[in-house]
User: What shape does this take?
Amino acid sequence: MRVAVVGAGVSGLAAGRALKQAGASAVLFDKARGVGGRLATRRVGDFIFDTGATSVAPRGLGIEPVMLHELDTSDLVEIVKPIYTHTNLRVSPGDAVRNRVPRYTYRSGGNQLAKLLAEGLDVRLNTQVDTLKRENGAFEVEKERFDAVILTPPIPQSSLLLWSLGESRPVANARYRSCISIMLGFDHPTPEVPYHALVDLDQRHPLTWVSLESVKSPGRAPEGQCAMVLQMSPTYSQDHYQADDEKMVREVLDYVRDLFGTGFEKPIAVDTKRWKYSQPEMVALFDTVNRNHDGVILAGDGLSAGRVERAYESGLQAARLLIEGSK
Assistant: This one.
């Protein structure tokens, strides 16, 4: 069996890896220059930032034995400090039960996980798949013939590919929110705080998430300096999606100063990343969407949840569905 996997994010990599282990041939196509999708890392000077997913909490799912036992763990870091909450920048301890769940990242950035998962897979980068063709029970993707297709992009993009086949699926429930990530590096020591990240659970403040990268993992900032990623709320991100970066940074620096005090007014490293489909606010059901798949399976966080471990699980489900159907 030869399978085209569209998307080399976490779901696509999980599907490709599972298919290969089952003896099938999988080719992954991705429009980006690298693997990982929203499991993304960016370097700005000597600073390292995770711009999308900020950690992985395996929760006993399929990714756990892979991360902890099958892949190279020399770069793997268990995050020691918990996640706290903030309400209008007033900080409080987070949920004690949730904070007992182990979380991991990599010294060189979360994208290292994607690179490790991609080892040994046939991945075609810088390849935008715009249409699918079906003929005589097979599929044509980028002028190559396949027996089946797994679609892992965000649901709106996968739906366009389905329409190119004259198909649709019950995915109306899957809705995504946008997110602007702002990366800041400071020539100032990392604040002495009891947490590695802050979250606004109500998402009423423009600042939904603060990840202190240099608390989360060693090596994210030079000695005596600080790296942080700010992720803005869905409302702020939608309203400012086309806004000037410099103006946005000036605004958020006020929040940073309110949280951490003086010394954080003038970053020495700045960058931004806009995610149109950051994570799903609501998801469609994998089994319902793929009940009569006819060789085209949808996977990804739009059918699971906006977490790395759940996206990985969705890719495994897609691969298993094909493998079991071929027996």
